[in-house]
Structure formats: C-alpha cells, structure tokens
Amino acid sequence: MANSIELAKKFVPIIDGLYKAESVTNGMDAATRPDFSGANEIKVLKVSTTGLGDYSRATGYPKGDVTAAWETMTLSEERGKEISVDRMDDEETLGLTFGSVMGEFMRLHVVPELDAYRFAKYAGKSGINTTSAAELSKDTVIPAIDEAIRKLDENEVPSAGRRLYINSDLKPKLNQALSRQWGSDNTVNTTLAGYNDMPIDWVPKSRFFTSITLNDGSSNWGFERTKASQEFTGDGSTTEFVVTAKPLAASIVSVTVGGTATTEYTYTAATGKVAFTAAPASSAKIIVTYYSAANINFMIIYQPAVLQVVKFSLPKIFDPDTNQDKDAWKFQYRQYHDAFVYDNKAKGVYLHKNVT
After folding, report:
1. Could you give the CA distance from residue 26 to residue 213 in angstroms, rounded to a whole number?
2. Residue 1 or 93, more confident
3. Which of 48, 79, 131, 230 has the highest CB neighbour number within 10 Å of its CB?
4. CA-angle at 348, arms to 345 and 354, nearest 5°
C-alpha cells in the first residue's frame, strides 16, 4: 500500500515539467501578478491625466484633470477531465500505461488548449494594433514584421519585453526571405531565435487562431477554430443560395443537404454564392458551415500588456487501492484560468492575421 501511494506521487512532477517544456505562452507569465485568492474577480485601477499647459506668471499653474476608473478582471474558464486506467492494463504493460496516458493528456490536450485560448483572447481584444488580413510570402513576411515593429514604436511601446510569436507555417518563407538577403537563391536551413532584439516563439498552426470554441472533449478535441453556419431551405427548383458572410473558398468546412454532406456544388467567394448541380428537394435543410475565425500569421506581444492567470491547476491521482469507484488508477485534472489584455496597454499587442 505504501509503495503504491509513493508511486502515485512520482507522476506529479512529470506533469508539471511537461507544461514548462511544451507551452508556447509560458514566456509571458509575469513574475508578479494580482492576487485572485478567495475571489474570481479583481479590480485594477486605470489612471490617466491631462498634459502640460503654459505656465502663467500672473495666474500660475494651468489646471489639470485626473481620471481614475476600475478595470474588472473576472476568471471565466474552469476546465477538467477524469481518466481511468484499469489496474491489470497498467500492470501488464510494466506500469507504463498510466504514466504515458497522463503525459499524452497534458501534451496533446491541456497545453495546446491553454496556448490557443490565450492567443485568441489577446487577438480578440478591442483596441490592439492590427492591419488588413494577408497571405504572407517570402517577399512580404519581413516587411510585415518590420511594419508591426514600426507601429509599436509609434505607440511608444517599450522595446524590452516584446515577444514575437510566428505561425510555424511561415518558417520556410522566413528562411527563403533570409536566404535572398544573404545573396543565395537556395533555402537556408536555419533556426531564427530572435529578430530586432525580440525572442521568437514558433506557434503550431493548430493553436494560432483569432477565435476558438471550447468543447467538452468527449468525442473531439477540447477546442477548435471557431466556425459559423448559415441555413437555407430547398424548394425543389432553386439551385443557388448566397452565404451572407462571403467566406473564402478555403474557409468552407462543409455543405450538407438534408443532413448529408455533399460536394455537388460550386462556390464563388466574391458573391458568396453556392450553386448546386441539382436543386435540393423541397423542405430539405441546407447548411453551409465555414470558419469564422482566421489563422494568425504572427503576433507581437509586450509582456506587461497582458495578464495570464492560472488560479488553480491541480492533478489528483488515486491508486487502485484508494479508488472507490473501480479497480483502476484514476487521474483527475482541473484548471481554473483566464488571460487578459490591460485596457490602457492594448497597444502593446500587434495582430497580423491571414485571409483564411
């Protein structure tokens, strides 16, 4: 019994270490943060003042105003999962199954969701720096980053503390851009660790969206890129229907007629028109689903402009002798967290999104 409990305790540091090794946003954790102890909400004082005026030798100092308002930050995301591994299944794999399952769960689900949620939260904050969506190439990726730096400089965002987060899909294009600058026509196999004194973090494409939807994780991933849909009703003669949002063709996820997916149609992004080969039957429900969230090309984030809070992140492990539900190892994980951009520091975030 004692040995079994001791074994359970040894899994916990492995779980903690995986987050530190795999999280992309870990570099933005603040050394100090507001205390959420005993509450799910805190208020941060926002202060602003008026500028200088002309001093008068007759009347003295010009009058100024001070504005102070409370900015409320409320934790909203409480996520969790319970996983069991039968005692015999674990024993017959030399005790490796349970530990492997925990590691995979953290690496494949917990950490990617945390990163994706934070990036989407920062990208969705009103008042941040952004520009028109674009597909970046080897010719435009560096100028786009340089323009982002110029914009942050214009807004007087301090240079120290900025981090550059780039979609990993852009790594080959950056390599090609650098090879041209170095006078070579060949792609250079290199790892760019920094640019203009900013550390670079490569973000997996699957975590880098302007908006995500959190799922229950029972039959799918815990999160996904946000989708939208528009419904139509067939009348037996109409073959063309217009999607109001006019998403790009690459953003179309599926088209179903009467609950069955179909490819018997053409889509024109300029008009949003879906044209079916044959008219859907009368009363048939037509659903066009598309991504409403865009892929992110890159973000520059000034670390003091954001707040990442993990109030509660606890793995609980029960060995088969302690587990009262079944003869199995049981793992429970719960995380209570959120991420914020300070209102007065929104200009410390720059977003460059893709057209799709």
Report:
1. 21
2. 93
3. 79
4. 130
Residue 280, by phi and psi: left (phi above 0), alpha (psi -120 to 50) or beta? beta
How many Å apart are CA 20 and CA 111, to the nearest integer?
Answer: 9
Rounded-to-integer distance, Cα 302 and Cα 318, Å: 41
HEC string of 267-282 equals EECCCCEEEECCCCCC
Residue with tokens 């290199």: 190
Q: According to the model, what pLDDT value does residue 90 have?
A: 66
Structure tokens, 71: 């900015």
Alpha-carbon gap, residue 356 to 339, rounded angstroms: 25
Rg (CA), the chain: 26
Measured between alpha carbons, how far is residue 328 from residues 9, 87, 90, 338 in Å?
Answer: 16, 5, 9, 33
What is the per-residue pLDDT for 103?
79
Higher pLDDT, 129 or 328: 129
Contact 129, 352 (CB under 8 A): no
Residue 118: Cβ within 10 Å count: 22
pLDDT tens string 217-234: 776 678 999 999 999 999
Query: Which amino acid makes up residue 324?
Result: Q
